[in-house]
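Final report, closing paragraph on structural work. Over the funding period we assembled a curated collection of sequence-structure pairs, and we close with a single example.
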Amino acid sequence: MRTGRRSRLSRILGAMPTMGPQSKPAAPGANATLHDTLAAADAAVRGNAAVGGVASSVNTDFLDKLSFVDDRLVATLDLGAGGSFDQILERFELYLNAKAGTERVQRGLGYNNLLFMAAELLLLQSHPDQVPFLLIEEPEAHLHPQHQTLFMEVLAARAAKPDSEKGETHQQVQVLLTTHSPQLAAGAELETMTIIVGHRAFPLGAAHTRLEADDYEFLRRFLDATKANLFFARALIVVEGDGERLLLPTIAEKLGRPLSRYGVSLVNVGHRGLFRYSRILQRKTGNAIPVPVALIPDRDIPPAEAKDLVGDRKTENELTQDEVVARLKTLRRDVGDPVDVFIADSWTLEFDLALRPQLAESVHQAVQLAKTSSRKPERLAKIVTKASETYAGWKEAGLSTTEIAVKIYQPVHDKEASKAEVAEQLAAILRKRTDTPEQMRDRLPPYLVRAIYYLTGGYVPGAPAIVPEPEVGDEEIGGAGMEGAAAVEA
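Its predicted structure, as stored:
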């Protein structure tokens, strides 16, 4: 913090209660005050031979010749400690030392910002009889992520009530902080946060969101910086695995709606709390937060043709109508305001893609590529050729699209190929394909198209604006049309 007239540091120092007595000489027998120390320094400076010589030269060589007989001009050269105490404080400078010792080094803006905020916190805690209130605008500027985390920990400690049992005596500070940093947002208590969308404030406390008490506890443990970008999104996709995380951006790009251009964030929550994250943006009362949220879960109901693959697990033909309906209703339980659920039409993302006739061969190639650790171009080319030949043989043998999809999906189901690797390979294959957005829209599973269009403001021809919640008696086992196309208003 720099020196200068009316510098912020001088005002902070001047407001410190301990600085008041330092502006006057010490009482007899007491320790020297700042006034005494600077006065002594002034005297020592004036007694310095070099300084005294400069002052003498100015007086003898110039001022004597410029003076009237009855009005001699005499100059003194010192530190200026005889000025006002404010002027003395304006000469102070606060800076960061090197890692060892007191050597002065040039620090970046991030470190200097930390120093500035430390000085402001010092001022606040020095007045225990007042109500300290600290406003900070985007403190993440010039701070690397690890320091942002550390900063939030320190700030949270200062904002908490002091624990007398731990010997804490700090002044509790009320803090209002604005940020665009997922790192800082992940370090804040969710209940204390407010989202600003379209110049409107939406508090995230328990009185406002649809989160339950155990949801807040869950999110306190698992809402990290990789997921906290949901607070800054224009639209949000919440998925259950790496397959969707790696593949959906490419699918959106092939549809002519790249997620980055539409400000869409993608959050992978694994299999933990898909609906807990979406409830952050759902309101108990009042207006909805205008940030569309798409949940994309698997349907997880294997087709009859997969019986040999899944063993004792029930396939769709072995489930009752009520069991299928109950499964789908569970997946759709949090639809509305502004969350919608786009459920896989049949089983999983990978299987549903393999069901699409004009994508199945590409999916099979991706699965076979994911099974190998080789990265030699010749070996990979042979795998792709072999996959195409195998796929053509299945078609010539008269296998149905579902039977072919089961064969394609088998290595994924049996853990011979990871979903993440399959998604990575398939994304690369799709990027090389020459499908137009219109063609890709017709070739993809409908639920994925609806999800992308819902997030990016598009409209799928033929899809209703609102899909009503189906009655149990009206459900059909077969699933392709059993998930909603758009959010139902809460």
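The chain is about 40% helix and 5% strand. Strands lie at 133-137, 174-178, 194-197, 200-203, 235-239, 264-268, 293-296, 339-341. We thank the funder for supporting this effort.
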